[in-house]
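INFO  loader      accepted 1 record
INFO  loader      residues=186
INFO  predictor   begin
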Amino acid sequence: MPLTALDPKTALIVIDLQKGIVSLLATHPIEAVIERVGTMSAAFRAQGLPVVLVNVAGVAPGRTEQRRLDGAFPTGWTDLVPELNRQPQDHVVTKHTPGAFTNTGLDAHLRALGVTQVVIAGVATSNGVEVTARQAFELGFNVTLAIDAMTDANAEAHTYSITRVFPRIGETGTTRDIIDLLQRSA
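INFO  predictor   done
INFO  writer      dumping tokens
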């Protein structure tokens, strides 16, 4: 389903655009993803809408078959990329699981602001972005996913999330689609 509307109180949630993550391999050029997210962030701020910048500083407990980064992260790993142009009014969330709502207070923060819809972008499409989108949907937020402002290390996983998962939990659109709707609803 194509993007139809943005609620009057919509927040942008940017997932894991941090120095340690963006240095890893990605299916799509990370510079383009960062540029698009930066453009959307500026558009949300210009409309006085909330921007949430999320980084990850740990992993969920439990065994997995796939190797993961456990223990101490290198210096600077969690630093947000400077291209996000973090502003004093931005809300920063540090998570320790794939989803930005787990044990972070993000739900309460957004509800206190009267937010009813979230636009989600960042990395990785099939992990942090998808888990956060699923959580937002389950919590009752309208969900929009900026499909040209995200990437993944695995092309098949990225495509699966965009084509199979996201249409079931929200609407998808490009950065331009979202900004155009944002400016029309102002």
